[in-house]
Amino acid sequence: MPSLRLGNTAPDFVAETTQGPISFHEWIGDSWVCLLLSIKQSTIVNQREHLRQSCSLTLVTSPLYALLSWLKSREGTSISLLIFKSVVNRMNRAPDFAKRNVKVIGISANGLDDHVKWAKDIEEWGAKFAPTTVGFPIIADQDRKISTLYDMLDEQDATNRDNKGLPFTIRTVFVIDPKKTIRLSIAYPASTGRNFDEIIRVVDSLQIGDKYRVTTPVNWKKGEDVIVHPSVSNEEAKTLFPEHTVHKNVPDESAMGASISPDLPN
């Protein structure tokens, strides 16, 4: 099966989730989507990521042993030992996605009951420090049909296997637009967590590029100057972006683009 490429239509599927059954394209509606494929819910890396999405944690001065004692008392919990200092001061990212019209949905090779139990444990743990809700649906993909559909099985890393020897899903992000087109795909190694700041930065770039005929430069952040797309002539740019600045030091003026301020027209 060929790999999915940017510009491909995101494969449709039906699935059971923690918020009920969905048909993926219907669930997307007219929103953007951030589809997060995880290796396994009980890994420490995944728990830190989901805590960052689902709750706002402020600095807690309680001693670490209090947290460890609580975790020890939770016999059968699906939460592995978390390194305390790595999750304090994490800001809630759910509003950042919501205000950009981005729905978040997770998927991993766990059963639905495991997902429900895991979400309950995350909420119970996080509630000790801040209001915590796992507000996004999680897809049960125990048979890995959806992971196979999205070509996201780890066939290379021999350590990335479950107790049956089956490959886990690669820790991956897909950003999908309202037309169901794949606009971003990032695959992370098993040892590396996602960077939600970068994902949101790319969403901002894609959305501003779709709304205006612009591109964004290296390390761009929302509110900074953008670049008029090279397909826009200088004369057209004067009409579309009267406040733009032309940089004369670019060798090929026809392909240079021109920077404009972030105060774009409505």
Overall description:
With 266 residues, the protein is α+β, with helices and mostly antiparallel strands. The chain has two domains: 14-194, Glutaredoxin (3-Layer(aba) Sandwich); 212-260, Antioxidant, Horf6, Chain A, domain2 (Antioxidant, Horf6, Chain A, domain 2, 2-Layer Sandwich). It is 28% helix and 17% strand. It is built from eight helices and ten strands. It has helices at residues 24-28, 44-54, 64-73, 94-98, 112-126, 145-149, 196-211, 234-240; strands at residues 14-17, 20-23, 32-37, 102-108, 138-140, 171-176, 182-188, 214-215, 226-228, 259-260. The strands form three sheets. Strands 5-4-3-6-7 form a five-stranded mixed beta sheet. A three-stranded antiparallel beta sheet has the order 8-9-10. Mean pLDDT is 73; it is low at 41-68 and 75-91.
| Uncertain parts | 41-68, 75-91
* Helix count from the secondary structure assignment: 8
Structural class by helix and strand composition: alpha+beta
- Helical amount among residues, as a percent range? 25-40%
Tell me the name of the CATH homologous superfamily of the largest domain.
Answer: Glutaredoxin
CATH fold description of the largest domain: Glutaredoxin
Instruction: Tell me the total number of β-strands.
Output: 10
Give the strand line-up of the largest sheet: 5-4-3-6-7
